[in-house]
Amino acid sequence: MASSSESSYHASVSGLTRRAGGSSNRTVPSPVRPDVDPPPRPRLGMQKLAVIAIVALGCLQLFLSPTHFRDPKDPHRSWIPIDPTRSAPISKYPTSDQQSSREANQEVEVPGIHIFSWTDCLNLPMLAVLTNSTLSSSRYPEDVFFHFFIPPEEDDKLSYYKLKVILPNSNLEIVGQKNIKERLELPNLEGDSLQTYLDEVAPLVVPKFHLSLSKYVYVSPDTIIKGQIEELFGTDLGPYAIGAAEDCQKRLGEFLNIEVLNAIQRTAAKSWVSDKPYDKDACMLDFNVVLVDPRKFDDTFTEAVLWWTKVLNLESARGNHIRLAMALTLYEKYQKLPPSWKLETSITDEKKVIEFDGPRAECRHHRTEQQSSPNGDVWEQYLPSKSVAILTH
């Protein structure tokens, strides 16, 4: 018994001794270093130099007047120069007081591209094609706004809802002509002459009183826009109030006796009469697409159109006598638009404006150009048959 317990004791001691000896041969681990090194010691005098720089910049802000500022409403945080001649700096993000003041003075610029159209014969499919064709060709359709002036006997609200069902994402406004006519100083005309005057002159001058805009586009309702409206809207009008394409298939001498016209030019002392003789080969203007800057629009425009109508007795002249009077009023006083923006009846790759080739509405007042237009299938690209059923119902 004694010998067996003594042998087990020696075995356990020897095992402990071997484990102790094995652990003594292991490598001692190096001390743990922190992940972040201690900050470097600043050079002598750098702290004093930093304090001096901060004090110097503070003195500059105290003694030098500011030249720029940042508007807190501007998401881009752009630097805006301060005008020393004004009591308050100019900002493109006006305050609520400034906004209300500008609205009271009707000086608030409405953003976007605004297209106006005036019709004496309501044809909703035609207006839908004009809208959809313009938006389909536009780079930024969400920035395009349409303002349609329809005859006073039509329901403007019903027309608006029908068009919005077909074109839910479009920016539309339908305005009855009755309210507009009450704001215009109409000449002493009656019957068809008054209606023609309204159809031709009012679309150019009404937007000036309807919205505060620096530029807008008038488009005839029977038009399909194939070009980008942004390209037209970006045209620089220079010193002129109106930009239009020329129709050189029609010459001034074809409609007027040029000798009588130049006799008036030599004797009449009116601001709207040309300083030099009129050219019988001068191209007529295409008033189907017109770019207008109302800030440069002469207030005597309507008076001049009426004056030319009476002086030359244009009511008996061939063609649209109001457009002829407008062409004389704007003689060499317009910016020439590219020929591609002239209204055409046939479609080509170069043309950006073509005439509506769909069915016409039957109305009492109707222009000759609309009646003689042939039917085609271009308009169907912008208006499905189901939409036609909704608009004509």
Automatic annotation (TrEMBL):
GO molecular function terms listed in the Swiss-Prot or TrEMBL record: glycosyltransferase activity; metal ion binding
Biased composition range(s): Polar residues: 93-103
Stored InterPro entries: Glyco_trans_8, Glycosyltrans_8_dom-fam, Nucleotide-diphossugar_trans
A GO cellular component entry from the record: Golgi apparatus
EC number(s) reported in the record: 2.4.1.-
Pfam families: Glyco_transf_8
Keywords recorded for this protein, A-Z: Glycosyltransferase, Metal-binding, Transferase
Chain positions covered by the region annotation Disordered: 1-43, 74-106
UniProt enzyme class: transferase
Gene3D superfamilies: Spore Coat Polysaccharide Biosynthesis Protein SpsA, Chain A
Feature: compositional bias, Low complexity: 1-14
Protein family (similarity comment): Belongs to the glycosyltransferase 8 family.
Protein's name according to its UniProt entry: Hexosyltransferase
